[in-house]
Amino acid sequence: MLILALETSLETASCAVWDGVRKILLSELRTYAYQTLAQRLPILVQSVVENAGVSLQSLDLVAVSLGPGSFTSVRVGLAFAKGLSMALDKPIIGVRTLDALALSASGCENSLIVALYPSRPSRPTEVYASFFKASEKSLVRDGNEFACDFSDLVAKLRGRLEKTIILVGTLPKGAKIVLDNWDDEKKLLLPLTPHLPSASFVAQRAWQIWQEQQKSDDPITLLPIYVLPSYAESRFGISVSIRQAS
User: Fold this and answer.
1) Same domain, yes or no, for 213 and 183?
2) Dihedral pair phi/psi, residue 189, rounded to 5°
3) Listed residue (70, 72, 50, 67) closest to 4, CA to CA
4) How crowded is residue 89: how many other Cβ atoms within 10 Å of its Cβ?
5) What CA–CA distance (Å, rounded) separates 212 from 139?
6) 131: three-class secondary structure by DSSP
């Protein structure tokens, strides 16, 4: 099964073609698309398909990240994926962005995996985060996505029972200072290099979901995930989006 995946939750967008049967990445491209995503996305998709040596018609599934992330970018990526799915008459799978990011971590059973990345430029120490419990075969989500200051996240982790905590993603500015007084009774594993959400992991998570449910999401009712209000909502005190309960 050939999966075309889109990841547009942040200013840098990525697109990948992944072979689910052979479990190999055929091609992945990334581009900085701040305020130009709608123009760049069709070119990015065409380029990644050509690099993979396949055609749009040969694709079997369209996968797309649902956020949380940039209000506009998530909506553009999802709208494009829906249109592509319907135009090609291919199934579509929506993937929680932090679920895909968590796949890039590996941990021992009973450890806690924390996927995180920056929430918005105006708050450099704030992150989107989600908890996952590691088992031998899979990652199990532990609650919904949330946004908070990194210092508050660390306070939450100090109250957890797990003895091994693995952070995956991108640490915010000043993270080292916050972690200087970490409790030595808990093992804390940090990412060696920053890692942003990636289309290749969106594809892999979509493959897992497809194996579990064996059916497409409804492209009409598939919605983005928001945990914070958009800039317009904050500025004008209005509500134009549906946000999950924390």
Assistant:
1) no
2) -105, 125
3) 50
4) 7
5) 14
6) strand
β-strand partners of 93: 63
Whether residue 204 sits in one domain with residue 185:
no
CA-atom Rg of the chain in angstroms: 18
pLDDT surpasses 60 at 246? no
List, for residues 202-234, the tens digit of each pLDDT value: 999 999 999 999 999 999 999 999 998 877 677
Q: How many other CB atoms are there within 10 angstroms of residue 161's CB atom? A: 7
Domain encompassing residue 172: 105-189
Query: Do 67 and 225 touch, CB atoms closer than 8 A?
Result: yes
Residue 51 lies in a domain: yes
- What are the residues facing 163 on neighbouring strands? none
> Does residue 133 contact residue 158 with C-beta atoms inside 8 Å?
no
Domain of 168, CATH number, reads 3.30.420.40
The pTM score is 0.93
C-beta neighbour count of 221 within 10 angstroms: 6
- Cβ-contact 199, 15 below 8 angstroms: yes
